[in-house]
Amino acid sequence: MVRSRKLPPYKASVVFRAGPVEAESGSPDIDVFGIMLKESEKFCKRLGLHKDLILKIVRTDSDWAFILKVDALLEAAAKHIIHHGLQIQLLKRTQRNETLNEFIDSLSMNGRTSLVTLLEAACLPDEELKFLEIARIVRNAYAHNIKYADMSLVELLKTRNDKAKLLKHLSGIREYDEAKLLTDYEKDPMFFRFCIISSAMRFVFFAYHLTARKKKRSRNWTTTR
């Protein structure tokens, strides 16, 4: 079990897939985690979710519940992008209807006809798509076998043949020693959660800004035609 009331003071630059943020000489480090957290809070507000949802997810008692909640957040963000992308222009007006919404909501996360496939067609970065795929794989491992409910995430990874692949995309760290990293995660489970939630917020950041720009473009198109 992981119980913590405060987020650990880890350097966000260590774990973000985009690489470390280099601060200028004499200037303070950029608070990447803080920036992403604020943007994620804006996204949660847009969807009518609790503003502190990200922090609540991080503080979840079990890794089982933590992963399921992260995956649910990612699915909501993925569907939000697609809902805004799959719109029909008819008579100079943007059309959205329940049939299209139900179709999107019925899509699975992975596979040939899936949310990830549509996001790939929308040219989202490959690293973000891989994170979505891997998060769903781990989520399914937890959700489909009740004996894993009390198993830590590190213990779960150790049981799998695709451990290296899962670790790579969940961690979001460019270079690491696998054995040492797993040992570090075992000693400090919150470190692993920090890596995962950082990657999740990065995807939420894409969802928030992609849909904001899409909405703005649609509005401009309507007024200029």
Structure overview:
The chain has a two-stranded antiparallel ribbon with strand order 1-2. The protein is mainly α and 225 residues long. 28% of the residues are buried. It is built from 11 helices and 2 strands; from the N terminus they run ααααββααααααα. The model is unreliable at 1-27 and 214-225 (pLDDT under 50).
Helix residue percentage: 55-70%
For the largest beta sheet, what order do the strands appear in spatially?
1-2
Oligomer: single chain
Average residue pLDDT: 77
| Overall SS class | mainly alpha
- Head-to-tail CA distance between termini: 57 Å
Largest sheet: 2 strands, antiparallel
Uncertain runs are 1-27, 214-225
Order of helices and strands: HHHHEEHHHHHHH
Could you give the count of β-strands? 2
Strand content is under 5%
Coarse shape: globular
Based on CA atoms alone, the radius of gyration comes out at 19 Å
Number of helices: 11
